[in-house]
Amino acid sequence: MALISIPSSTLSFCLKSKPTHHIKPSPKSSPTLCRKNLTSPIMSKALASTSVIGEPRRTGNHHANLWDDDFIQSLPNLPYHAPQYSERADKLVGEVKDMFNAVGAADSCAQNILKRLQMVDKVERLGIGRHFEMEIAETLDYVYRFWNEISKDLNTAALGLRVLRLHRYPVSSDMLEQFKDKEGQFLGCTSQSEEEIKSVLNLFRGSLIAFPEEKIMDEAKAFSTMYLNQVLQKTHILSASLSQEIRFNLDYGWYSNLPRLEARNYIDIYGQNSSWVKNPNNKKILYLAKLDFNIMQSLYRSELQMISRWWKESKLCKLDFFRHRHIEYHFSGCAITAEPKHSAFRVILTKIFTITTCIDDIYDTYGTLEELQLFTDVVKRWDHPPIHCLPEYMKIAYGALYDTIIECGQEADKTQGRDTLHHVQKAWYDYLDAMLQEVKWLSSGYTPNLKTFLENGKVSSASRAATLQSLLTLDVLPEDVLQKVDYPSRFNDLLGLTFRLLGDIRTFKAEANRGEVNSSITCYIRDHAQSSEKDALKYLNFMLDEYLKELNFEYLKNDGVPTCIKDFAYDISRCFHVFYKERDGFSISSKDMKNHVQQILIEPFEM
Q1: How far apart are the C-alpha atoms of 592 and 578, rounded to whole Å?
Q2: How far apart are CA 7 and CA 14, in angstroms?
Q3: pLDDT at 50
Q4: 483, 481, 366, 351: which is closest to 427 by C-alpha?
Q5: How far apart are CA 163 and CA 155, in angstroms?
Q6: Contacts of range 232-237, beta carbons closer than 8 Å, 24 or more positions apart
Q7: d(Cα 265, Cα 314) in Å, to the nearest integer?
Q8: What is the CATH number of domain 292-602?
């Protein structure tokens, strides 16, 4: 597959002189972009930390690639790609479809609705919902017809609100008002029985799919969060599986809960519930989920090995000043989608994320102002091969960028039936301009106001440059539809703004320590002279929360954009929440991110 394998000769022009492991710039390079800020204690410390041929260079001192190429290439082939496994999976899919048709047939209307919702929720949590798209649509159409009549039970109402809203049915959160008393407390939540706990857990899950100005959703979230945390202190009333389910939902919520990550965890959670597994139908569904997961993981491994070969052939591995996270990025694509037909999406996302990280570290830390201006100009001319005046490390970065965008563009054009390169080029030109603007601010010691910083930052976050080509492989997007999910849409703006705010909130201290002193935090303090860092973080977290609610609304509204495009674009934004959940996982991937990679890409389920 040409998309995944680049001949080693492709980038030979970058290596006319054999580089050392750490690509070094010419001794004639211009002074670093930070030299004007040497009076800053933070900047002085950052500059003193590294030196290349007598010239200070800032680096992030990031840890090396955790996934040795020999290890990746030596991963054994899983047997699950063999025909007998897919045949077994197909048989089980047919049996589960029969379960959909039979669910709730002998129950009252209210119980029928609840069981139908639980069936949909179950297969989606376990990562096998894609096999039952028609059954899910028919089930939810049925539920929606009776929605106003049967939403009197908290468990049904909370679960239905979440499931129907995520499938773009126009359901209002106002129906939760009926479950509050005069003091604003949710009724009937005092017994802490297992049934009640599950109802409040569904209330918590539903409250996270909030839109702007939905006060009731904020109240539901606050109440359910407090309730569930209190319940966790009383372990004697919880089964191990229910306790694990509550902890998982509180920890990962909605924004950090990628589809395949959720499936991996729920397979474990349901597998621990011995009473649940005793049901023969549940046992079949769980077995299908494990089998499906392993079949997909065998595909991921072959993609992973091709990505590892591309990593070496692109020569990016020679540039040791930037974060080597290509394996973690492939986890991102695989955690979003399991379908074999989306292989191009996963591979393109991995490659472009990797190159974006390289260029981000060049602009943020390693490059000089003169080099960065030159690099920006070269990219805008779209020269090939790159002109000789680029430093060697930039030739490698530019070569990887150019060849990968051309290669991935050919794959995208197969889906679109037209040339889309101009859209991608514009996204990259804008991205580099925004990055260069931040460099100029830093070089001159200027701190912009927060509004100006975020207007630029939504572009420098790279949300558009890093994701556009992978999205173009998914479905046909005519120009008028493309604009609803790409520039100049509000959806695109919100993706960039949430990327920027989330990154700044999580990384501003580490970035300041290495000389990147401008962030949303410093800009807020500039605007509010009497404010503290704590004040800034409180305000920015509030702003992020409000933007995320608006993003939910833009994501879930029906505007003619193919569902998979919005789903995957939204899930890419959720990848950022996963990376930033415990720490800056882009910089420190040796802890939780390593575990995620092992779960999704390395460790199959025992069958």
Answers
A1: 9
A2: 14
A3: 41
A4: 483
A5: 12
A6: 234/192, 237/192, 237/194, 237/197
A7: 35
A8: 1.10.600.10
- With a CB cutoff of 8 Å and minimum separation 6, the contacts of 139 are 100, 103, 116, 117, 119, 120
Least Cα distance to 577 among 501, 510, 512 occurs for 501
SS3 of residue 56 by DSSP:
strand
Q: How far apart, in whole angstroms, are the C-alpha atoms of residue 198 and residue 210?
A: 20
Nearest to 249 by CA among 212, 198, 211, 286: 198
How many angstroms separate the CA atoms of 478 and 482, rounded? 6
Give 249's contacts (C-beta < 8 A, 6+ positions apart): 201, 204, 205, 228, 257
Cα four-point dihedral sign 157, 159, 162, 164: negative
* Sequence-ordered strand ranges (E) for 421-558: none
Query: Which residue shows structure tokens 């695109």?
Result: 492
- Backbone dihedral region for residue 382 (phi beyond 0: left; psi -120 to 50: alpha; all else: beta): left
Give percent of the chain above pLDDT 90: 69
Cβ–Cβ < 8 Å for 286, 267:
yes
Residue 581 CB partners (closer than 8 Å, separation 6+): 251, 252, 256, 592
In whole angstroms, give the CA distance from residue 466 to residue 576.
Answer: 12
How far, in Å, CA of 200 to CA of 250, rounded?
12
Residue with more model confidence, 414 or 511: 414
* Residue type at 369 in one-letter notation: L
* Residue linked to tokens 């037209």: 418
Q: What is the pLDDT of residues 119-141, one digit of tens each?
A: 999 999 999 999 999 999 999 99
> Residue 34's pLDDT is what?
31
Q: Does 3.40.50.800 match the CATH number of domain 96-291?
A: no
DSSP 60: -
Which of 214, 222, 199, 122 is closest to 163 using CA atoms? Answer: 122
pLDDT-derived band at 509, boundaries 50, 70, 90: confident
- Using only C-alpha atoms, the chain has a radius of gyration, in whole angstroms, of 25
Helices (H), 208-272: 215-232, 240-252, 259-272
Buried b (16+ CB within 10 A) or exposed e, 519-528: bbbbbbbbbe
- Determine the Cα–Cα distance for residues 384 and 407; give it in Å rounded to an integer: 14
The residues pairing with 428 across neighbouring beta strands, listed in sequence order, are none
Residue 365 Cα to chain centre, angstroms:
24
* pLDDT single digits (tens) 58-93: 777 788 888 888 899 988 888 898 899 999 999 999
Domain ranges of the chain: 96-291, 292-602
As a whole number of angstroms, the distance between CA 409 and CA 473 comes to 9
